[in-house]
Write a structure and sequence with these properties.
heterodimer, A: 231 residues, alpha+beta, B: 524 residues, mainly alpha, Arc Repressor Mutant, subunit A, three-stranded mixed β-sheet, three-stranded antiparallel β-sheet
Amino acid sequence: MSAKRKRPGPASDSIVTEHEKMVHEVIRSKKDMGASQWEMKREINVADNVITKCIKSLLSKSLIKEVKSIQSRGRKHYMSAEFEPSNEITGGAWYVEGSLDTEYINVLKEQCWRKIYGMKVATLEGIADALKRSNVSQIELSKQQVEEIVKALVLDNQVMEVTSTGTGEFASIPVGKVCYKCIGKRGYGGEPKLGALASIPCGVCPQISHCTPDGIISPITCAYYQKWLDF
Amino acid sequence: MATQYGIKCAVNLITAHFGDLVAKVCECLLRKGPLTLQATVRFTELTSSQVKNCLLVLIQHNCVQAFTLEQSVEHGDAAKANTQYIALFDNIIHRWRFSKFLNIVSQNLDKQCVDLLEALLQHGRLTLKQMSDRAKSGQNEGDDVILDAVQEAIIKLLNAHFIERCPASEPVLTNPTKQELAARKRAAKSAKIVQEQETLEQRVVEAAAPSEALRFLLVTQTELAADGGKDEIDSSIVTPGEKRKRDALESETEYGAADEQVVLWRANFEEFIRHLRHKACIENVKTRLDDGAVTVLKAMMEATRSTEKKVKTENSVPLSLSSIYEEVIKSEEGRNITFDRVRASLIQLSCPPFVKADNESYSIDFKKIIELAQNEEAESIVLKRYGKDAYRMFRLLSNSGHLLETDKIADATFVEKKETPKILYKLWKDDYLQMEKLQVTGAKRLQQFLLWKVNKNILREHVLDEMFHAALNLSQRVAFESEQEKEMLNIPKDKLRDRLRKVALLLGSSQMKLDDAIMLFHDF
């Protein structure tokens, strides 16, 4: 009580510094994962406003830094100055400021597809070399990053993974080596063939499980059907 | 096995074709399984005479099969037998494919064969005399000429396996002995490939089916009158040898001592489904590979079709490169294809593995082609209903075949980590994914992870049920539009006619296309 009433001076500086030390210790103990204010409150039994003051002070003294965490859901995250944030909180190479760099990823995907299309059949090494030579990315991409992009193209059904037979179009690739080819006869971004169920209203209807022959939602009363048959 | 909406579709079909009473009996059998006459009367609350008549109609049209299950009583009394009736779900659903079956025959055989098949589909089953009488009523030719023409058409249809002898009216199904059950268990344990357990419906159908020697055999009057094996056999037959045929005929006592005039014939749905399966495989390969590869695949199917023992054959019989080449050059599209081109096409067909090569022999992997087509259909639904991110996640889980953790899915599909669980949850809620929770005790606290998976068998059943639901909806809408047509009096006739034509075309083509997808998930 008497410490709080003291005027600012060397004596009160040491009390604030003690709390700062405690807060800094908690943050430092989390290493490259950092900590939010909420986590700090759980570990040290100190009032919220005291923690806030300590954080402000530590920031101004450059002992800690603020980092974006993809897991913190809007809460600010702090890290001791000597650590670099881990992939777990930054999200990894594809994250910028806590969000996925979608534009960059999409550019890389399209360029990757065009390289595979040009080569007809390509190995990961071939694709990585082609990307490097064309300077698509200012940052050099690791082999793992190229693989992640190619595998995303496989999931988009733009590219398929095949195994070299060593003959025909695979003549220049060792037998058994994994390689990639563009799928089918559509260009980049073309959607796969529409299935039978997906081409009628019921196939895309979010209410299908509630639809019954005599119910409120039925093929007779259905607004999607009405629109579909509106000639 | 019939899904919930599958049963509703079947009942809807029977109602449209045969009325409410027959549909009531059919629904009872579909929902409750095989029943005796008395049990059916009790459940439907109809009279015995009404139920009997309904069963006769359903049997006539191959939608129900009677059978007897031997009940062996433990303390040694004589085995009791009770006639039961089982609904044949597949045959009921085939009723909305009759136009497709007729189309197959019109592409392969002449008009007389098409007319004959149409009669069999309309009436369910007919004797030779009934078919001739029907043909006579429409023509001015003499009786013998018509009989010959009808026989000729029947033989053509039998050669192609498009029609068959009707099954036995009431086969006896014996319960497997304890030794047989134990042997089956041992076989199942040691088998590397899991065998589907034969359902009761499959056992009944098998027991009722005529032997392969008789199934596609028409013995003419000449042969019946013949005295000891000199006459030529004027029929299609699977196994050669006149004496063997006579022996088989004599042993088939249920046909009543070779009285061919009372033998009943019916459409062989199995062969039509086989044709449609092959067609679907070719269509699927066409979207991925060039015309040469498609021609080679067609030729392989043509060459091995007659060796397929069941519709859901997983692999075709292996063929050598030269046999394939010989078959390819028989067709119009394949006439100018060179031997090297055939070889190159086979390499093309190996990626994805539609055709497997083994020691210079090649066989079609039907199972793979069908699986890929099923995956595409399911993925298309996910893409349209839930969006691109969900599509990538679904494909990741479908291809991996095992449980994956939420963050791993987010990383692989390039979706924000906080958005990923919402999308996965939606797919799980609608039964497209399975989910498991994993709790791990960490250094200071308990962490919970969510793991996700696509279970292909459960997914297939679920998508099939949605398809049947959609098919039922389409039927209802078609009926509704017809009703509306009668009430649209204030709209100019031209405009009305134009709209109705477009609506009928769209609904009709959607029904056909959806039925192809139902066959993909259920029959192929």
